[in-house]
Amino acid sequence: MEYLAQFKPTSTISVHPPNPTSTISISPPGGTHKPHHGGQDGHLPLPTDTFPSAVSHYIHATHTGHNALWIVFAIFTAALVGVVILTIRTEKRNRLFHGISALVLTIAMISYFAMAAGLGVSYVPIHNHGPQGSLHHLFRQEYWARYVDWLFTTPLLLLSLTSLAGLSPATSLAVILTDVAMVILGLLGSLVDARWKHGEATRWGFFTVSTVAFLIVWGILFTGGMKAASYRAKNTKGLFTLLTIGTFLIWAAYPIVFALGEGANKINVNTEIIAYGVLDVIAKVGFTYVLLFLHTHDETGPWTLPEWWVASPQGYGPDGRGVYGSVGTTRD
Length: 332
Ligand code: RET
Known about the structure:
By secondary structure, the protein is mainly alpha-helical. The chain folds into 2 domains: 1-13 and 21-28 and 44-53, no CATH class; 57-305, Rhopdopsin 7-helix transmembrane proteins (Up-down Bundle), CATH 1.20.1070.10. The chain has 9 helices and 5 strands; from the N terminus they run αβββααββαααααα. It binds retinal. Retinal (RET) is lined by residues 150, 153-154, 182-183, 186, 189, 207, 210-211, 214, 251, 254-255, 258, 280, 283-284. Residues 1-45 are annotated as: Disordered.
């Protein structure tokens, strides 16, 4: 047994030296059962071969990132409370933007709660451009929950903008569907296995098509949106221009964070969390409060909710006209 123990394969995996190896000892040719002359312990020196074996490295958030997620969650919660208060103080038919904003903030709040609690995150293989990259496999934490958030919140933010401009339902739908495509393409790009070159190329391919969708969305808003807004009252037109330019600039920073984070791995996961957190707060909370405070309802527009939508019938029965053709309209 002692004799056999000498031929046990040994495997050494080290993380710190840049050249990890697995050493496997191979039995000498001709078997080892016969004692040979010359060897110290009666057999030939063992031929050994060295096979490189890859080491995995995980790039993930630390306390700083987790704390940032909790802080952003708290900001969205406080912002939502503020919007609820503003909603209560507003006439029902003027609550379209309040309703949309409350929905946006609620979704963001839930999404940040989930991410802070460690949900909605996966490790995705990314390409290692460093020396001996093929021996050091990198896995980067990817918070895909934010794409689920964007899938719902970005169409809602765009709905606010297109309603403010009074853009046609057909064009508004085109803007929203293009935006949905942008988010889904971004999600696929961030999740694709990019360990090898072709995977990395696929990731940038998704990024490029998503950016094209982004440009279409803003192209429509800056042309058709501006034109539609020019027919609105001066205040509304000014607010639309302000929100469209401001929102475009903020949204344009998202692909930059993606390129530096999920794309090229130039910034760490904490920095990515903080960058997206700041952008999300400006794009949602900043947008909401500018819209709710600066929008005046003195003009009737596409944002004015119809009576049947906001008012519960005062009479008896589902439509307020009594039931089974009864004449009375109120229950006594
Ligand atoms: C991705 C990656 C691929 C290229 C582009 C992107 C754009 C993302 C945007 C996100 C906006 C999010 C907002 C969230 C909350 O309020 C998907 C990052 C163009 C514009 C406004």
